[in-house]
Amino acid sequence: MENLFSIGEVSRYQQISKQTLIFYDKIGLFRPAYVDPGNGYRYYSAAQLDYLDTILIMKKIGFSLSEIKAHMQSYNIDSSLALFKKQLAVIDRQIEELRLIRSRVESRCEQMEASQAHRREADAVTIEEMPEQYLLALPVDPPYTLREISIATKKCFAEGFGEKLPVFFQCGVIVPLEKIREGRYTEASYAFLPVEKAEGEGIRRLPAGKCAVTFHIGDYLSIGRSYRRILDYCGDHGLEILSDSYEFCINDYITSHDENEYITKICFYVREKG
User: Fold this and answer.
1) Can you give the residue ranges of the HTH merR-type domain (predicted)?
2) Which pTM value belongs to this model?
3) Considering the chain, what is the average pLDDT of its residues?
4) Which end of the chain is more exposed for a tag (fewer CB within 10 A), N or C?
5) Terminus-to-terminus CA distance in the chain, angstroms?
6) How many CB atoms lie within 10 A of CB 29?
């Protein structure tokens, strides 16, 4: 049709699918100038292509289709300026969130890169000066099996993401010392996520201090051998264990499907016996 563009032509010029144009028509965002009553074909005017450009640009900027539709019902330079300034604030928040996510991914990459060294240290126990750190910790329900630990971990991630806490993409558990001494190595009382310094319900501060550390390589059910190693080391070297066990997952289900590649860092706060 003269001075009109078919839906196929608009799709080709604007690099947008016909299905998207049909959807925009159905929601009243971008309707054709003319619909052939005989075959239902849609046609658009030249002026409408500029209108479609505006829609696509606003979508690229990050506006929702409902925001675009409401704005374009009656817009001018003043309303556009106000809306675009508001979107700048949204973009700034997204940039900050991406920076936070990037730092978390970078931290996880560094852990995985260091995993080879941890494998070489699998049979060793070392003493480390641990820095102050913070955890988002949630209780594990009885009977404290791997099922309940998994559920508590999922709750940690859900709460951390829901509350927009500065969590690292890492998890861990706290196992009571008395259970470890009884050989109940996998009965964790809390699941946790390391976070940047924060306050609030569920946030636990770990002070800086001396820790006995060992790395467990392999599936979680075999972690008892690593606990026996670190307990023996503390006994042989005159170290008093002051805390429950803090297990930090270095390599886990997030980074490998092979449990033989799992690496768990086991930490106890200790001091020399007086």
Assistant:
1) 4-74
2) 0.76
3) 93
4) C
5) 96
6) 17
